[in-house]
Automatic annotation (TrEMBL), chain A:
One of its GO terms (biological process) is cell wall organization. This is Peptidoglycan glycosyltransferase. It holds the Pfam family PBP_dimer_2. Residues 158-479 form the Penicillin-binding protein transpeptidase domain. Keywords: Transferase. Residues 52-135 form the Penicillin binding protein A dimerisation domain. GO terms for molecular function: penicillin binding; peptidoglycan L,D-transpeptidase activity; transferase activity.
TrEMBL record, chain B:
Residues 478-487 have a biased composition (Basic and acidic residues). The keyword Membrane applies. The keyword Membrane applies. One of its GO terms (molecular function) is lipid-linked peptidoglycan transporter activity. This is Cell division protein FtsW, lipid II flippase. It is found in: Membrane. Keywords: Cell cycle, Cell division, Cell shape, Membrane, Transmembrane, Transmembrane helix. Pfam families: FTSW_RODA_SPOVE. GO terms for biological process: cell division; regulation of cell shape. One of its GO terms (cellular component) is plasma membrane. Its main location: membrane. It comes from the Bacteria.
């Protein structure tokens, strides 16, 4: 009987090998798919069983994990002043996932990043609980708060982005309306669902990050790019004479293109380019655009960042000039109408590039990532995206913007600080009040802050709204907060 | 006595086995090895309990040492029983069992903590399973000692084979025929008998009794099975009437599925019968016939019974099937554990319903990882292989068949349940030997291990009687020799 016994023993071994092979399949090969399966509650509980790292900005705690009494969810995410900082922090919800930095830097915050491997090992051997790493943002909390208060306080919809022109760090990115990420981080899934439904059904899209993903017609702020393109051709300079007509006929179509309010550009038949910029004359820039051509306009726009994918680390919607089919459309595009679309982030990048001698710096929100013990894991280096225009041209445009500031209203002016700016009032459809824009940097001679502000649909002013009336005060307040706070 | 003292042969003394002095000095008993390995098992189990405590902080750590020592003392007593009544038994069997049982207790305790938390949240009453499992462990060890005391020679069991067979069959059928008051339908299977607070599964006992019957029956009727019938396609088919025992076993298995709704027990019994016939006859054709019958039975059961279809559906589509919740949670747990596991007390095995019974291997795989699961499966392979080793070494056919059957039975049971919880085969309700919570299974397996110890003792004992002892009582032998001597 020994022969069959040996064979049975072999069969038993084979059965165990089969079990081991299957276990390897489940626990190694299929493991990731099973771990990330939507029905797997363990992955979820795991995220809530260790304290997630903090999100900090300039010493101010923006998001942190607080211990709870719950067995299943040992930590709850809490956002100090949630709505103001929501565009940056994002949210952390076990029903609806993550957004903003919570998503972009999830690996560091949850402690699973490769850069934290050594830290995890140390904690394991010293018997400490695992803990997520921290993320320090570039935000200037005072500017961020001011930006949000300026928008939400007056009940308008819009967005503000402020950059440091020298290194591209994002000083503020605020939206209105915003949302409270605390509600989405509730430990009750019912409460989360209620909040989510309210937010996603709200008419003003509070969950949308206007600063990076809403494309607005830029209106006259686009004249900065038209001017840059014109100066680059060499045919134009600071004093080049351009038309001062109150209205021109669009080529080959039966339509007129008037200046704002039907005004002429000064008292002469022609005006120097700087004055056309300062007075924001549509007729002049439409003709300049027609003169330099679509190709040059696109090239310059691209060198400022148009059409390029950008991670800050959240993705930024690429801005675009849109399709141009004829000369009439090129005229309109030259003054930021027709199909030209920009995010507030892109417009702030334009201002920052002009402020930074024509150099475009990549915007970034993360200053550095930190281990749980606050030692630095990684620091974001400033990155140059390219030279949009030469320093000379940048200075020329800056000088025009200093002149433009004189025509941009007085509300919120900061005494002793020279701002270089450009306003915009963007039509976006029959019967709708215009969006007001204001892009600027300050101080003009030694720029520390570049800002773009947009207020949707006339703000509180209605059809008479202009960029200088509704957007300029918001942006100036943000600049003031930054200069006073040493940002 | 006079006869034995003058016996010139190196024959066994009639006073009982184990008293011979000649060869005993050359064959080591290896009991010291067993004790060292038991201490090793106790250390592993104590460490495991310490880990659970560190992670879940349920008890003061001073108590753990006390538990570890109590565990060692309990198995130390079993060791003494083996030393006294089966001194040549395999030294690995008891330590391997101690390891499995101890780790099972730790896992049950750990799942108790998880279940208690769940029950507290839900406001349900909860009673832990670990304390009663400790009692059953002690009871099992007492029964193991009793088996060693009363079954001094495994061959005596052959004398009671038909009694065993009858009692076994009755025990197997009992829950099916008894009214639901005594034999309730629990989770779709009618396997238990409930008398007041006590409940047990007679199938666990029936398994061993029927094994004894089959071993004895097959040894006495071996020739029947080896007589060739007609040749068909180059295979010697057995005669039709010789198929009777296989057909009876097959019918009984089908009966279990139909009446007790238990696929696992059915598969287990049929597999054991097949392999024992194969070992006895050395003819693989029985396996082929058996597998064909089994396949036919499976197909019939699948097309006829809803509960079989449910099981298969849950196996193929655990994530989408209505009845696949348990398996999908087990798979999620295993995947979350990964290669190294979450650590004892670090996972969430209590999410899986019946984690401490049917799904204890999934709990082990989650918290100990693929490595831990592989170690457990290899321990099972080692334990059952020691049974087959005893079968190879023991001299009598009945012992060979019984040890081979017992060893294979345990491994097949591990295969069926481990394959079920890891998604290799459809899930059937078998217990995991020594690991899972459940009194009858634990006690039954200790009886099984007692028999294996007894047979391994016989296989390694240096002085074997040349003739089978039971047929020749000592007194008759002594008498015969006394008469012959004066001649």
């Amino acid at each position: 009987m020994n022969k069959p016994l040996r064979r049975v023993a072999m069969a038993m071994m084979a059965m165990i090998v089969l079990l081991l092979a299957n276990a390897t399949y489940v626990q190694v090969i299929r493991a990731d798919a099973l771990r990330n399966h939507s029905g797997n509650s363990r992955t979820l509980y795991q995220q809530y069983s260790t304290p997630r790292g903090q999100i900090i900005a300039n010493g101010k705690l923006l998001a942190s994990s607080e211990a709870t009494d719950s067995e299943r969810f040992k930590y709850k995410r809490e956002y100090a002043n949630g709505p103001a900082f929501a565009p940056a922090t994002g949210y952390f919800s076990f029903v609806y996932g993550r957004g903003g930095i919570e998503r972009a830097e999830n690996e560091v915050l949850s402690g699973t990043a490769d850069s934290l491997a050594l830290n995890r090992l140390q904690r394991m051997f010293s018997g400490q609980k695992q803990q997520g790493g921290n993320v320090e943002l570039t935000l200037n909390p005072a500017m961020q708060q001011t930006a949000y208060d300026q928008l939400a306080g007056s009940g308008v919809r819009g967005s503000v982005v402020a950059l440091n022109p020298q290194d591209g760090s994002i000083l503020a990115m605020a939206n209105s309306p915003s949302y409270d990420p605390n509600r989405l981080a509730s430990l009750s899934s019912d409460e989360q669902q209620k909040a989510w439904n309210e937010l996603s059904e709200a008419p003003d899209d509070p969950l949308v990050d206007r600063a990076t993903s809403t494309l607005y017609p830029p209106g006259s702020t686009f004249k900065l790019i038209t001017a840059a393109a014109a100066l680059e051709t060499g045919k134009y300079d600071y004093n080049s004479e351009v038309t001062a007509k109150s209205s021109i006929k669009l080529p080959k179509v039966d339509a007129q293109l008037p200046n704002y309010g039907g005004a002429t550009c000064g008292t002469m038949p022609t005006a120097p380019l700087w004055e056309a910029m300062a007075r924001s004359c549509n007729t002049a820039f439409a003709e300049v655009a027609g003169d330099i051509g679509e190709k040059k306009l696109r090239e310059t726009a691209r060198s400022f960042g148009f059409g390029q994918d950008l991670d800050i680390p959240m993705g930024v919607e690429p801005s675009s000039i849109g399709d141009i089919e004829n000369q009439a459309q090129l005229y309109q595009s030259g003054i930021g109408q027709f199909n030209v679309r920009m995010t507030p982030m892109q417009n702030a990048m334009v201002a920052a590039a002009i402020a930074n001698d024509g150099k475009v710096m990549k915007p970034h929100l993360v200053e550095k990532t930190l281990a749980p013990d606050m030692s630095v894991l990684d620091r974001t280096d400033s990155e140059e995206l390219g030279q949009a225009v030469s320093p000379d041209i940048a200075h020329t445009i800056r000088d025009m913007m200093i002149k433009a500031e004189q025509y941009a209203g007085d509300e919120g002016k900061i005494s002793g600080v020279q701002i270089a700016s450009k306003t915009g009032t963007a039509e976006h459809g029959e019967g709708k009040d215009p969006h007001g824009w204001y892009v600027a940097f300050a101080p003009a001679e030694n720029p520390r802050i570049a800002v773009a502000a947009v207020v949707e649909d006339g703000g509180n002013v209605g059809a008479d709204a202009t960029g200088s009336k509704i957007a300029a005060p918001v942006a100036r307040a943000v600049i003031r907060a930054g200069l006073q706070g040493g940002g | 006595m006079a006869a034995t003292s003058t016996n010139p042969d190196n024959r066994e003394a009639p006073g009982g086995p184990g008293k011979g002095t000649g060869a005993a000095t050359t064959t080591p008993t290896r009991r010291g090895t067993e004790l060292v390995l038991l201490a090793f098992a106790a250390v592993i189990v104590t460490c495991a309990l310490t880990l659970v405590n560190l992670n879940l902080e349920s008890q003061p750590p001073s108590q753990i040492l006390y538990y570890g020592l109590a565990f060692l003392a309990l198995f130390g007593l079993a060791h003494l029983a083996v030393r006294r009544w089966a001194p040549y038994a395999d030294p690995l069997i008891l330590p391997l069992v101690a390891f499995l049982n101890g780790l099972g207790l730790v896992l049950i305790h750990r799942i108790d903590i998880g279940n208690a938390a769940e029950a507290e949240r839900a406001g349900d009453a909860f009673s832990p399973a670990a304390p009663s499992q400790v009692l059953y462990t002690a009871l099992g060890l007492v029964l193991l000692a009793l088996v060693l005391v009363f079954v001094r020679d495994h061959r005596t069991l052959a004398k009671y084979s038909y009694t065993c067979g009858l009692v076994g069959l009755v025990a197997l059928a009992l829950p099916a025929v008894l009214p639901s008051v005594i034999a309730p339908n629990i989770n779709g299977a009618k396997l238990w008998i409930k008398l007041g607070p006590l409940s047990f599964q007679p199938a666990e006992l029936a398994k061993i009794l029927l094994l004894i019957f089959f071993a004895s029956f097959l040894v006495s009727k071996r020739e029947l099975f080896t007589t060739a019938g007609r040749r068909f396609l180059g295979i010697d088919l057995p005669r039709a009437r010789d198929l009777a025992p296989v057909l009876v076993a097959w019918a009984a298995s089908i009966g279990i599925v139909v009446l007790e709704r238990d696929l696992g027990t059915s598969l287990l019994f049929f597999g054991i019968v097949l392999v024992m016939i194969y070992i006895a006859t050395e003819r693989a054709v029985w396996i082929a016939i058996g597998i064909s019958l089994f396949a036919a039975g499976c197909l019939a059961a699948y097309s006829l019974f809803g509960h079989v279809q449910q099981r298969v559906d849950a196996w193929l589509n655990p994530m989408t099937s209505d009845s696949g919740y348990q398996l999908s949670e087990a798979l999620f747990g295993m995947a979350t554990g990964g290669i190294g596991g979450s650590g004892l007390g670090g996972g969430r095995p209590a999410i899986v319903p019946y984690a401490k019974n049917d799904f204890i291997l999934a709990a082990a795989a989650e918290e100990l990882g693929l490595l831990g699961l592989a170690a457990l499966l290899l321990v099972y392979l080692l334990l059952t292989a020691r049974g087959l080793r005893a079968a190879l070494a023991v001299r009598d056919s009945f012992g060979k068949l019984l040890a081979g059957g017992l060893g294979f039975a345990m491994l097949l049971q591990v295969f069926v349940i481990a394959g079920g919880v890891t998604g290799l085969i459809p899930l059937t309700g078998l217990t995991t030997p020594f690991l899972a919570a459940g009194g009858s299974s634990l006690v039954g397996n200790y009886v099984l291990v007692g028999l294996l110890l007894r047979i391994s003792d016989a296989s390694r004992r240096p002085q074997q009687p040349s003739k089978p002892q039971p047929q020749q009582p000592p007194i008759a032998e002594a008498h015969t020799e006394l008469v012959e001597r004066p001649r």
